[in-house]
Amino acid sequence: MAAPDSAEQQQALELARRSVGQYFLGEQQPPDWSSLPSWLHEWLSVFVTLHIDESLRGCVGSLQPRRSLAEDIWFNARAAAFEDPRFKPLSAEEWPQTMLSLSVLLPSEALITENETELLQQLRPEVHGVTVVQEHRRATFLPEVWSHFSEPQDFLIALRQKAGLPPQFSAKAQYYRYATIKIPSTRLFSQ
Hints:
- Residues 7-191 form the AMMECR1 domain.
- Pfam families: AMMECR1 (PF01871).
- InterPro entries: AMMECR1, AMMECR1_dom_sf, AMMECR1_domain, AMMECR1_N, AmmeMemoSam_A.
- By secondary structure, the protein is α+β, with helices and mostly antiparallel strands.
- The protein folds into 2 domains: 6-105 and 182-187, 2-Layer Sandwich (Glycoprotein, Type 4 Pilin), CATH 3.30.700; 109-178, Hypothetical protein ph0010, domain 2 (Dna Ligase, domain 1, 2-Layer Sandwich).
- It contains 4 helices and 8 strands; from the N terminus they run αββαββαββαββ.
- A 4-stranded antiparallel sheet has the order 2-1-3-8. Strands 4-7-5-6 form a 4-stranded antiparallel sheet, with helices on one face.
- A hairpin with a 2-residue loop joins strand 1 and strand 2.
- It is globular, with a radius of gyration of 17 Å.
- It starts with 5 loop residues before the first helix and ends with a strand.
- The mean pLDDT is 94.
């Protein structure tokens, strides 16, 4: 997928805004998908991230495409606002203060590694998102999460801990990298 232009980015953000706004108004019906621009019908996945005053307020997404981008934006926006288990549901009072951003995931690539050094050599901080999978445990960090860590090893330790795995490298774990198309932050509430 080519990076969406500014008008297409606004269409995606507006879809997320409408999803949350209609929820507050008690409207559950999704839009007529057929009326949306063709690029939103592509089979892609997205993470919807919400912040209030630079603090995470919700983040929900799909690692693998399972529906159109429009549908993924719609349902993940609602889930980020009202179903992220780390937070209470977004309140009407918080709504106007909340910032929204989207990260469209490009296809992931399995990494072949035998140790932490080889793994780090295949990753570019702030360019690659990373997913770790071991047995039934899985976690991901989007590319922008690298900025929260001063050392790349700390990023990987935190990722493994998020998945409920030991902090040290294990050859039993499988790693995947992916890039994203970042749609910049804007207010969730739009008049």
